[in-house]
Amino acid sequence: MVRFADLWRRSCAALLLCVMAGAARGQDHSPATRPLLDELNRETQSLYNQAAPSIVRVQLPGVAFFAAGEDPLAKWASRLDPDARRQLEEIERQQGQFFVREDIAPTTAPSDATTAPSPHLILWQLGRFVPNTVGVVIDQDRHVVVPRFTQREDFRAPVQVLLADGKLVLATFVASDRPAELTVLQLQDGEVKPAAVATDIPQPGSLLMVVPLNPAMCRLAVWLGEGPDQAALVTLDGHIAGISQAGRFFSLAVYQPLTRELIEHGQVRRAVLGVAVRSVAQDDPQRKSESRGATGALRVVGVVAGSVAEKAGLQPNDLILALAGQSVGDVPSFAAAIATRRGKTDILVLRNGQRLTITVDLQVP
Predict the structure, then answer these.
(1) Quick one: which of 34, 59, 82, 218 has the fewest CB in 10 Å?
(2) pTM (predicted TM-score)
């Protein structure tokens, strides 16, 4: 990782010098005159080829592809003939067919105001595969984890999954967990490999390879702790740290124990802490005082009477910084981290400006 990062810095400097020299002298630079960039290119290809076979793109059922109010069928429902609407609804219900674009082409209205304008013509384009989430292969049995919750009832048939080599394969539902917002699938076939999982959460400022839902947007980027797009995050040693999605970071290391529980038992036999928590915004004064930056934190908003949390001394307004030494900055990740913990577990909290370690005794009811 140190070598790759150093190479990246040296290559950027080399590129700037090449551009400046070329502009000054009008020279034509061949690849042989840019050895650092050429080496960076080879390293980037190697890194991508190492991680890509573990990353898939999935069309989960029951997950909206369009933003609220943008589904064409709902948006233009009042302008559709009832028979046409029924036909389109039937197409939308068919497994594997989804509306992916709408074109609204109004006909030209006559110049005189006495004639009403003709209705809009709605053109539909249907696609048989529209992925809506990124998944990661985690074992030799082709189990895939995706950071979304779906129910078994949503899977009327196997779903399609796009592999890195461009092949479409089918996957079946295994299990899911609502508190952790996690679904586990199993591929029926395909050339994939289990991900090498990073043990640490990337720190803000880390250089990562971002492999997003749109494969054309794959890139090297500086990680700031959260990202707006859905993407697998690959460290410079080829390990997959997790998946970013809508500002949330899904850590594979944090979710591994819960994932194994789902695969083995079909559900999570969850230890109960007995607190209600919510994520703390980055501009929260208490979070700023801790210099948490992009590292998340959770505020305790309620403690259940007689619970493990109350017995251990957790209080409302405590700021939870870490569980068993692991940062957990959002509610689903906290639910995943605590789900399979048993026995004495340390929770690092901030209370009235002071850091405290509170030990709770977690047991399954």
Answers:
(1) 82
(2) 0.71
Identify whether the C-beta of residue 243 lies closer than 8 Å to the C-beta of residue 232.
Answer: yes
Beta strand 248-251 with 240-245 is antiparallel
Which tens digits make up the pLDDT trace of 307-319?
Answer: 888 899 999 999 8
The two tokens of residue 116 are: 């009403």
Residues 6+ apart with CB under 8 A from 23: none
- Read off the pLDDT of residues 61-82 as tens digits, 9 standing for 90 and up: 866 544 445 556 666 667 777 7
C-alpha R_g of the chain: 25
C-alpha distance from residue 141 to each of 108, 189, 263 (Å): 58, 10, 10
Average pLDDT of the chain to the nearest whole number: 78
């124990």: which residue's tokens? 257
Beta bridge partner(s), residue 278: 299
- The answer to whether 357 and 331 are in contact (CB under 8 A) is no
